[in-house]
């Protein structure tokens, strides 16, 4: 113990609770401030005893939350103080920027040693972000089989099942009995850290079936594996996109699935915990794309955040100037009736809101595959109906308010008609634009919003100002 | 067989493939049109042989997709033709409206019989949507223990772990050996359909530990359960919100977790497949709420869809009139310089886009708990920096274009300044509004967009028109 002051006693007393794990969190789910204070003080004091007792033994995901909550200098100091006691799998739980920063400050020897201990999917997760040179150096320090396995995973493209899979699995031949299988598992030291099914393979490693552990436990020792295995096992080709693989997991409620190469040879296993991450990421991606932001992270700098958002704003700027030029066509009308300038953003804005409602539903339904050719036409009709109904409702409402405001029921009638037109346009744009983008292989989440807004702005301004010009005979 | 024409032979030939399961899907993930045609024809012909062979044997989720793809009358006919062969768990895979429609057309006897066969979580999923009377009638037809179990689940509020849990589980006392446990599983007929861990309980049903199946399989028969069980098992209180429970699953990579009552007695088990659904739903909810739509489903009618979207549009209408009244303050200025009316939507619109970028990131980060008190201040500063940077960039850009368009560099300068002001306002509103809403216990996804748009519209119009009025000395 490096010191025995009161402060440290208190730290250890609180730490006693903190070590329990779930207790490091406050009620709102953030890491407790007092715990972080103690950790910070322990880092400053180089209090290894406290750090080993109360930080090193956290669950990897808790450690990840702690790393994200403390300052960058504290992070590096903590990792270097813990040395071998730092569990590198915590790095799979933090932002990419933080992961890279920590890894850069670690000696390659230490990374290699840690990676040798990890499940291959976690190891790949950390290795894939490193530059070629560091990757090679670390791989070269690993035992041969380990190295070959990790290289194979890394050879598969990003976002494929092959890249995400774990290469440790249990596989037995079909002619073994339940008893032999259990004995094998009792004796073999080289089993994966945890598993929920075993695979059945032929001598050439070709997948012939799978078997859940509960099935083995319910069956008598003398029964042959081939008589109780499942033959329909939804094997996942290693080249399959992770999103598609995730859909298979959801559809068939899988806990894990065999990953096979082009010859149907078993090369790894994809597990539900990785798939849950994929599902989260994909849902997040749609939400971020609809909001006009890419895959930025909270730890990104001002410059890189700004840069990643500029493209979307630039595209929208084009749309905005297009809408402005539509208004420009009616300069003379606005000069005569300024009320039009005051009211026109209402028509365009309400159309934009209605359009984005329809678009949100459509994009989500396409992502979950609830919307397809069998019901597309029915949904288009429904949306047109909703647009008509809400157009009538809001047309009348806005017409009355605007008419009363400017004491001119001509204007009220004109805005009502324009609203109706724009709400129907919004509904049709909101459904057809994502459908068409999807049909032509574009991601509807990325680009739908720009097109829909263009339609509702242009239609809104054109309908409102055009009707007014015609009605009031402005020339 | 009801007929032996060529058409039917063809149907059966194609059906031979179709039965395989994965083959009912076309490449884009929708159900194959030719398969649906055959199913439709078989329903019309009352061809029971085909339906039993090629439809009844589908996986529940595949059956769900088929039910969603065919017409309502076909659906009811199919279910009634299949009778006892129809697997009711397919109903857990379809839209609520479709589920209710089918259940209403089924006799309560058949529902009760099917529910007796199901896992309790699926049974509850179907029962919870029924009205009190039908629910009671069905429950009364079930055996006592079954009835008590289902009632207990139904007594927990919607969206809690208790409502989602499965009441079938395997539990053993701590003093049993691995051998005894395996023998028990080999002999007991009343085990759950599938399971990945067993629980360890004391004589009063209090939870003392848990054990993954792979651990049992690796351990010698003579070893006592208490020596190999895990004691930290993250038990989930039955009253816990399902979203919170899902976060525990994600954090600790759980496959299943014990659900306990207020006395720490084991009442059920929550499994990862239910949690995946919760994660999906929650992610979907945020996306839908940001887009201004509630929990509508694709099968909803025009009227109910229209009604569910009206509230959001009404709130936005208030905002739109507020923005319009800001423009109204500067009527005289617009009358003199119509160019302002043409350009003002650009200032407001670009601010709105920038604001919703920041807001999207913030809402998502709050939902995933990546944003909390430890980094909030840093992120606010970052967003302000991004707003300043993009404000300068787009201010200059728009200023040059607008100045050139109207051949008036006063207007260019004014719009540049207004853009800068609005982009900073957008960034600050985009980050602080969701943070404040979250702080005060409101759901930031539901209401952030309205407030942010209000800020960017009002600031945009006020800054642009106000600066112009001041600069050109309009009185």
TrEMBL record, chains A, B:
Note one Pfam family from the annotation: MgtE
Give the CC-aspect GO terms.
Answer: plasma membrane
The protein's predominant localisation is: membrane
All residue ranges annotated as the CBS domain in the record: 229-285
> Record keywords: Transmembrane included?
yes
The record's subcellular location field reads: Cell membrane; Membrane
Keyword annotations? CBS domain, Cell membrane, Magnesium, Membrane, Metal-binding, Transmembrane, Transmembrane helix, Transport
Q: Name one GO molecular function term.
A: metal ion binding
Stretches the record annotates as Disordered: 1-20
Does the keyword section mention Transport? yes
User: What family is it from?
Assistant: Belongs to the SLC41A transporter family.
Topology of the protein relative to the lipid bilayer: Multi-pass membrane protein
What quaternary structure, including any partners, is listed in this protein's UniProt entry? Homodimer.
Q: What does this protein do?
A: Acts as a magnesium transporter.
Membrane-crossing ranges are 310-330, 336-354, 386-406, 412-437, 449-472
Q: What PROSITE patterns does the annotation carry?
A: CBS
Q: What is this protein called?
A: Magnesium transporter MgtE
Q: Which domain of life is it from?
A: Bacteria
